[in-house]
Structures are given as structure tokens and as C-alpha cells.
Amino acid sequence: DSFRELTPSGAKGDALIRNLADRVAAIDLLDRAAELLDDLVKNRLQGNAKGEAGMRLASIRLQNNQVLQALQALDASRVETLPAPVRRERARDVVRRGGAAGDARAG
Prior knowledge:
Blueprint: H1 10-26, H2 30-44, H3 47-63, H4 67-76, H5 84-106
């Protein structure tokens, strides 16, 4: 967080943060990876990039057994301009994760 102001602005900085989040998630620092992507989704990205980052954030949240937060990430990153195949994939994820959320609440 103390180096956030050193991140380049624009698409180059966004790509750097996405790559960093992927690397951090790869070493199982899922909370930190989610924080990075959450900031991108909420504050930096728009359009298709926002939708794709939201899908990645939801995936990381699910890996970290945070089903409700995964659904929230999908909801927060919903964009109507996503290509049809991506929208279908997101819809499948919502249904699949929504069922898991119901299982988590019941359990």
C-alpha cells in the first residue's frame, strides 16, 4: 500500500497490478491478491477489463472459501459490454457460486 503512488497510471499500471495479484495468489497469499484486484475493480478499471478482473477476483475469493465475497465481486464488476461468451461464463459462475453460497449458509 505504501508504494501505490509509484504504480503507473493507465493501462500499463492496471496490467502491472493484475500481474502482481496473479503472482501473489500463486504463492497462496489470497487475501492480498484479492485486495489488489478489489482496488482495481472499484477504483481503476472500466468496461471489459473491469468485468474480467472481477471474474478473477471472484475466483480468488472462492479459492479462499469466501463464497459470498465471490458473488459480491461478480456483482460489483458487472458490465453490459462484455462479449456474449464472457457474459455466459459469468452467469454460469453466479449460478454455481450461488448454489455454493446456499450450501455454506446451510452448513
